[in-house]
Q: What sequence folds into this?
C-alpha cells in the first residue's frame, strides 16, 4: 500500500482526517486486505490508520493476544489519539476485543468481522501447518466463498509463512494463545458499542460464532453479508463499507446525544 510510514518501531498506513479508525489485520493478511475500507472512509470524514502488527517480530513471550492488545494501546498513545474506533478481522478482531476489555476508556466503538475469541478451532484449523503448494492453495481458497479471491499473491504469502520455521512456530503460538484467551466470560461486561459484520458462508468462524458474539456483547449490532466467507472486507468491500458506514452514523448520532446531555 502507498502512504505507508515508518516512525520509531511502527510501520503504518494513514489517510484522511477525522475520527480515527484503527484497523487490525489478521494472521494471513497484510494491510492490503483492507484496501476497500482504506479508500472509502478517508473521503467520509475519518482518519484510517492500519498499523503492521508485530506478529512475527516480537519475542515469543510477547507473541500472544494480550501482548498485541497492549501494543495497540501503545500505538494509540504514540499517535496521540484520545479515543478510537477499532476494526479487526480474524486474529485482528480478537486483539481488538481484548484491547476493548483492557482499555475501554480508549474506545469509541468496535467493529469485528470473522473474529476469533470464542471459537476454539478458528485459528488452528484455518492455518496450514506446512505442506505442498496445492494443499496451501486449497486452504487459502477455503477462507473465501469465491475461491478466485485467493489470488496467487495471497497463496504465495501463506505458502512462504508455512515454510518459514520461525514464523510457523509463532503462528502456532498465536493459535494456542487465541484458544487460551477465550472471551466468553468477558464479553457480557464489555459495553463499548460493537458492530459485527459476518459472512454467511464463513468456514473458519462459522455464522453461529457471530450470533454468539451478538448474544454476549450487550451493546452490539449484527450484520450479514451473503455469499461471503471469512474476510468480508475483501470479498464484498462495497457492501462491507455500506454496513460499516450505516453503523458508524448511528454511533455518531448516539455519541452527539450523549455529549449534549
A:
Amino acid at each position: 500500500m502507498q502512504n505507508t510510514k515508518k516512525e520509531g518501531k511502527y510501520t503504518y498506513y494513514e489517510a484522511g482526517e477525522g475520527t480515527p479508525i484503527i484497523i487490525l489485520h489478521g494472521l494471513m493478511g497484510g494491510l492490503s486486505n483492507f484496501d476497500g475500507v482504506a479508500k472509502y472512509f478517508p473521503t467520509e470524514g475519518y482518519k484510517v490508520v492500519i498499523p503492521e502488527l508485530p506478529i512475527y517480530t516480537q519475542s515469543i513471550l510477547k507473541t500472544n493476544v494480550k501482548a498485541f492488545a497492549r501494543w495497540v494501546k501503545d500505538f494509540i498513545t504514540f499517535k496521540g489519539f484520545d479515543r478510537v474506533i477499532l476494526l479487526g478481522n480474524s486474529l485482528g478482531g480478537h486483539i481488538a476485543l481484548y484491547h476493548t476489555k483492557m482499555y475501554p476508556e480508549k474506545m469509541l466503538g468496535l467493529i469485528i468481522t470473522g473474529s476469533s475469541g470464542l471459537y476454539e478451532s478458528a485459528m488452528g484449523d484455518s492455518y496450514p501447518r506446512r505442506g505442498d503448494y496445492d494443499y496451501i492453495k486449497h486452504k487459502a481458497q477455503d477462507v473465501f466463498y469465491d475461491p478466485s479471491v485467493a489470488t496467487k499473491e495471497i497463496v504465495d504469502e501463506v505458502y512462504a509463512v508455512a515454510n518459514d520455521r520461525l514464523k510457523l512456530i509463532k503462528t502456532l503460538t498465536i493459535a494456542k494463545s487465541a484458544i487460551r484467551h477465550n472471551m466468553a466470560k468477558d464479553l457480557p461486561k464489555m459495553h463499548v458499542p460493537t458492530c459485527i459484520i459476518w459472512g454467511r458462508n464463513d468456514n473458519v468462524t462459522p455464522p453461529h460464532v457471530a450470533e454468539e458474539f451478538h448474544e454476549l456483547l450487550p451493546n452490539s449490532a449484527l450484520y450479514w453479508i451473503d455469499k461471503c466467507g471469512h474476510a468480508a472486507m475483501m470479498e464484498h468491500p462495497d457492501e462491507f463499507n455500506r454496513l460499516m458506514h450505516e453503523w458508524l452514523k448511528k454511533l455518531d448520532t448516539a455519541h452527539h446525544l450523549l455529549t449534549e446531555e
In short: Strands lie at 4-7, 10-15, 19-24, 46-51, 84-89, 107-113, 194-199, 220-225.
